[in-house]
């Protein structure tokens, strides 16, 4: 059984391992293994994850089966609390397709009861993720040439869904 709970500092090494595994499984074919390693070493370092853990107006949750962390999600409120930006939602490949992503998404929504919109960025070539979000009511509202940060150079679709 999977339990969704708030992430703790002691979870961070296991969250990092999940992110590295998932990013390589998802993005090696798009960006190449060397670039994925560089991205995960930067974006998913323990120090970066710790900053996320302590971020104000944010929720960092994990899906835990008691043996390992099967998934994680991170979101923060924006626009005076009316919009939530889903910054990360990743499921370990062995656990994909079991409803864990939906559980994490529902928990993120529940954590921000004042919000009326949920927004995220997704790699256009990540067909599984795009389909996952569209099946849950998200629509493409924009595109960016630099996902996550101004310096990433990674293109992304910007998807959004009303919460009310």
Short description:
With 164 residues, this protein is an alpha+beta fold. It contains five helices and seven strands; from the N terminus they run βαααβββαβαββ.
What does it look like?
It is built from five helices and seven strands. The N and C termini lie far apart (30 Å). It has 164 residues and is of the alpha+beta class. Helices cover 37% and strands 30% of the residues. The protein has a seven-stranded mixed β-sheet, sandwiched between helices. The protein is globular and about 40 Å long. Helix 4 links the parallel strand 4 and strand 5.
How does the helix and strand content classify structurally?
alpha+beta
Q: Tell me the helix content.
A: 25-40%
The low-pLDDT segments are: none
* Annotation, overall tally of beta strands: 7
CA-atom Rg in angstroms: 15 Å
Q: How many strands, which pairing sense, and closed or not: the largest β-sheet?
A: 7 strands, mixed
How are the SSEs ordered, and which strands pair?
Layout: E1 3-6, H1 12-31, H2 33-43, H3 46-53, E2 58-64, E3 69-78, E4 83-91, H4 100-111, E5 117-122, H5 127-135, E6 139-144, E7 156-162
Helix pairs in contact: 1-2
For this entry, give a set of tags.
164 residues, alpha+beta, 7-stranded mixed beta sheet, 5 helices, globular
